[in-house]
Amino acid sequence: MVHKIFKRTRVDHVRFTKLTVISLKFSQKLQKSIQRSQSVLCVGLDPDPGLIPIGNSSLHETTKSNSSTRRIKDATRVYDFCKTIIEETTQEVAAFKFNTAFFEALGATGWEVLEQLASIVPDDTLLILDAKRGDIGNTSAKYATALLNQIGCDAVTLNPLMGLETFHPFTKSDETGIYALALTSNPGASQYLMRQFDDGKTLSETIASDLKTYSKSGECHAAIGMVVGATQPESARSVLRAFPEAPLLIPGIGAQGGDPQEWASLLSSHQGLPLFNSSRGIIYAGNAALASSTGTRWIEEVRKAVIETNEALKPVLEACSARWKVS
Length: 327
Hints:
TIM Barrel; alpha/beta; 8-stranded parallel β-barrel; disordered N terminus; globular
């Protein structure tokens, strides 16, 4: 059983905070998380066992082992890796985003690893599940139960392409945040999301406009936000205009090359609070150091990457702090 493999370690102040905190609306928790950390950085946890800088030579074992043993070893690496990052960087970041695919790839063990890691994220730090779900009613309801109740996240990413009715099971509480895919950072965004309709609007703009309408409907109690890629600042202008109140999850800085400076100006008049996600650029920052002869601990390089990314994001925080009241 998985619970025999992983020690359910807890940080005392984390558990204390979780047990005593008063329930907050998602919008309040988002603002408080940014205020506490003085950061708009979200660290993306996309743990690939083959890249994790723990275990030195054991990371690239050539000896044969059965698939069950290999999954257990991979799950252990993932747990130790992510746990260390959470504990060592939580004071400097506003949120952690778990990419569920990297945990699902580990099988049933991976899902329990995700549950345990979620339990050690401090309550004053946002926990986002990057699941990109979107399906018909009864299936969507089960997705909502798994992500919101079983894991207990603050926010989740959803795919709106099957219609906003698929959001209903996720939008029953004002403590929940929804980040809907609107304009993604990958090249494939041009294939559909940036394609224009006959009225001149792109699909991204239409999604943003519809999300704004949905957010004000009586059947939606959650905070509705958007995923807007950092690599698409020019295309994002019209999307942000269509839904200026939306909280934003902005992936694509770091390894994907998004420029925070461009976004400082773009967001100066946007009303919703942003979080900028960096995954590979931060969590694997220690790999080069581990491979060198410097002896630098990998987590020190991760912390350094967090500090440098926060510094790069300062113009965004400064440009908008008065409007958002996060200083």
